[in-house]
Design goal:
Helices cover about 20% and strands about 20% of the residues. The protein has 6 helices and 11 strands. The radius of gyration is 17 Å and the shape is globular. Bound molecules: succinic acid and manganese (II) ion (MN).
Length: about 260
């Protein structure tokens, strides 16, 4: 799948791009089926649970199940990533984010790049994430909310957090209480000139988004689950500065080989 010039222009202007029907319902059903395998793997450090005990995120699912290993290599993801980034890419991070019907929790307003820059030593935001929707997703399920064009602002000041914990504590990048969040005034200012956009779409839709775009999501009060895969690709010229005590491989992959795309 090759993106058209108008899609590339839309991404560079807005910091996100929605591509509908990138995956079939049958393909998504298979992913949902495999995901159930993690119910018995909740003890793994890369499986993050909410206070309710439900799984919130599963990192590096490709290490456990073949179907996810085949997912991030798909040409229909790699070609657009290469087009939007202008280079070969490797897999930087892969997670499944779950929001269980009625109880799935929110994500505060944040940019992704601060975690990758400050915690992993990546120099440039030459990265992107591809989010695949596992259900028909509407406003009621707590889809991602974007502030279009906010990726152009670059890295911004963080909201000071009362409970901000030690530097190097990577767990507060994973729960509902995030370490680096965007200041509320900034969001208010930008949202006054550009309306917020919800990442709604039918099952199998893929949403590409920039690491600096401001984004958040609400709790899932609906009776329907909201599951997504979020696959982050990085340019092979933009590697992390490896140092001791760095975040685990399931958050910052160490295999920098360009991905060999499969059909
Ligand atoms: C994220 O910001 O990485 C994910 C938020 C969500 O799953 O709603
Ligand atoms: Mn994020």
């Amino acid at each position: 799948m090759k993106l058209k010039q108008n899609q590339i222009d839309f991404y560079s202007e807005n910091g996100y791009l929605v591509v509908e029907n990138l995956f079939t319902h049958q393909e998504i059903d298979q992913l949902i089926q495999e995901m159930k395998g993690f119910d018995t793997l909740k003890h793994l450090p890369q499986v993050i649970c909410e206070t309710s005990g439900e799984i919130r995120s599963i990192f590096a699912p490709h290490k456990s199940f073949n179907v996810f290993d085949e997912l991030y290599r798909q040409k229909r993801l790699i070609s657009p990533a290469q087009q939007l980034l202008g280079e070969d890419v490797y897999l930087y991070q892969f997670k499944l984010n779950n929001k269980k019907a009625f109880i799935g929790e929110w994500w505060e307003w944040h940019q992704d790049f601060p975690y990758w820059h400050l915690d992993d030593g990546i120099q440039k935001p030459n990265m992107l994430s591809a989010m695949i929707l596992f259900q028909d997703t509407t406003a009621a399920q707590g889809p991602l909310i974007f502030l279009p064009g906010s990726h152009k602002v670059g890295l911004v000041d963080f909201e000071p957090k009362q409970n901000s914990s030690e530097e190097g504590d990577y767990m507060n990048a994973l729960g509902a209480d995030l370490k680096y969040t965007v200041k509320k005034e900034l969001i208010r200012d930008l949202a006054n000139s550009k309306p917020l956009v919800l990442a709604e779409g039918s099952k199998g839709t893929c949403v590409f988004f920039h690491p600096n775009i401001f984004h958040a999501s609400s709790s899932n009060m609906s009776p329907f689950d909201r599951n997504t895969a979020i696959i982050t690709y990085n340019c092979t010229s933009n590697l992390p500065a490896l140092k001791t005590g760095q975040r685990p491989e399931y958050l910052c992959a160490r295999n920098f080989e360009p991905i060999h795309a499969i059909q």
